[in-house]
Amino acid sequence: MREIRSNLARQYIDAVSVFEACEDAEREALLVRGGMYWHKGAASAPEAVYLVRTSPKGAEKSLGPRTPETERTYARFLERKQLAQDRLAALTEKRKEHERMNRALRVGRVDPVVVKVLDRMASSGLTEFFRVVGTHALYAYEAAAGVVVDDDAVATRDIDLLWDVRKRLHFATALARVDSSMLGVLKKVDKTFRLKDLDKYTAVNQDGFEVDILRREQQGEDPHPIRMSDDEDDFWVTQARQAHVLMDAPPFSAVIVASNGTMARMNTLHPLAFARFKRWMSGQQDRDPLKRRRDALQAEVVEAMVKEYLPQWQVPASI
Fold first, then answer.
1. Distance of alpha carbon 12 from alpha carbon 255, whole angstroms
2. pLDDT of 318 above 90
3. Helix or strand (DSSP H, E) at 289
4. What angle (nearest 5°) sits at the alpha carbon of residue 240, between those of residues 239 and 244?
5. Which residues of 188-210 are buried (b: 16+ CB within 10 A; e: fewer)?
6. Residue 32 — φ and ψ, nearest 5°?
7. For 148-184, how does the pLDDT look when each residue is reduced to its tens digit (9 = 90+)?
8. Among 101, 147, 196, 286, fewest CB within 10 Å belongs to which?
9. Alpha helices in the chain (DSSP H)
10. Is 220 left (phi over 0), alpha (psi -120 to 50) or beta?
11. How many alpha carbons fall within 13 Å on the CB side of residue 114?
């Protein structure tokens, strides 16, 4: 583990500032999606004009007849919408500039497909239903700490996404908004993603990169087995031992940078909760010995990182 150079640290800090401002602008733009227009009355009552709010999918809602108050509402909406669009457009261009600088300075090293997957999930409104767990979480920790972890600890060709089965109904609603299945969301990143024949919780693309979707072991009224959508070709989520520990741990979030300079937010779990889980994994006698050794290495690396570079995470509320 080594510290990144000061010029790279400065670039990362500046890029993250723009990225986070862009996130804020996107949230603001969401509040003014759709539009408003004045609906003219029937020919028999042309003076009966109503203000109508439209949704992005075409649904309409009357806000009342034309009055000084609804005219002000209309004017404020148009002004707010224009300001939000202009701000988002400016920040999006600034973000692209920083991504080009990231690439030129070699700030990032995450596989670009990881950033694409996380970015697609964010734009689809699905981020809140998942946590990145497993090896890729180290990229979030090292980004926050300003260090680079040795390749032996992070070498992997798959990303584990822990799905919160407790939010399955809200997830179904969010997925329906983008008219897709979970596999369909991944296909928008890379059309070559396919589910494995034997492991229906794993999608793999033509380059051999895998996306695994996990869930906690069945509790209470949790359905099992469970498919992520009604699409016959969608993921069947697999139960992972002790996954409730990962889901219940305090959250951790950081902006990661790909080797091509692009950025995305990674939501994962408290680093010490990750280290504790990896310690437990390394002691499981039925686990592959090579993976057990890497589990122990990752626990050591994260504990050392927290101690030296992330002291604010040394005393968690509960892990």
1. 9
2. no
3. helix 289-309
4. 100
5. ebbeebebeeeebbbbbbeeebb
6. -120, 30
7. 999 989 988 999 999 999 999 999 999 998 878 999 9
8. 286
9. 6-31, 68-105, 112-123, 137-145, 151-154, 168-177, 182-187, 243-248, 271-282, 289-309
10. left
11. 29
Handedness of CA 14, 260, 266, 228 (dihedral sign): positive
User: What are the structure tokens assigned to 72, written together?
Assistant: 């002000």
Query: What's the rounded Cα separation, in Å, for the pair 146 and 305?
Result: 10
**Type of residue at 274:** F
Count of beta carbons in the 10 Å neighbourhood of residue 8: 18
Cβ-proximal residues to 18 (8 Å cutoff; 6+ apart), any chain: 91, 94, 95, 98
- Count of CA atoms in the C-beta half-sphere (13 A) of 292: 9
What letter would DSSP give residue 34? Answer: S
Tokens linked to 211: 């996306």
Q: What is the pLDDT of residue 316?
A: 58
β-bridge pairing 210-215 and 158-163: parallel
The Cα–Cα gap between 240 and 219 comes to 12
**Cα(204)–Cα(195) distance, integer angstroms:** 6
Q: Are 267 and 106 in contact (CB under 8 A)?
A: no
150-168 residues labelled b (16+ CB within 10 A) or e (exposed) = eeebbeeebbbbbbebbeb
User: Helices (DSSP H) in 151-214: which residue ranges?
Assistant: 151-154, 168-177, 182-187
Question: Rounded to an integer, what distance in angstroms lies between the CA atom of residue 107 and that of residue 9?
Answer: 8
Residues 6+ apart with CB under 8 A from 127: 118, 121, 265, 267
pLDDT tens digits for 55-113? 887 889 999 999 999 999 999 999 999 999 999 999 999 999 999 999 999 999 999 99
Rg (Cα) of the chain, in Å, rounded?
A: 23
Beta bridge partners of 252: 268
Asked if the peptide bond before residue 225 counts as cis, ω within 30 degrees of 0, the response is yes
Encoded tokens for 206: 């033509």
Please tell me the distance from the alpha carbon of residue 59 to that of residue 73, in angstroms, as a whole number. Answer: 19
Average pLDDT for residues 216-229, to the nearest whole number? 91
Residue type, 139: Y
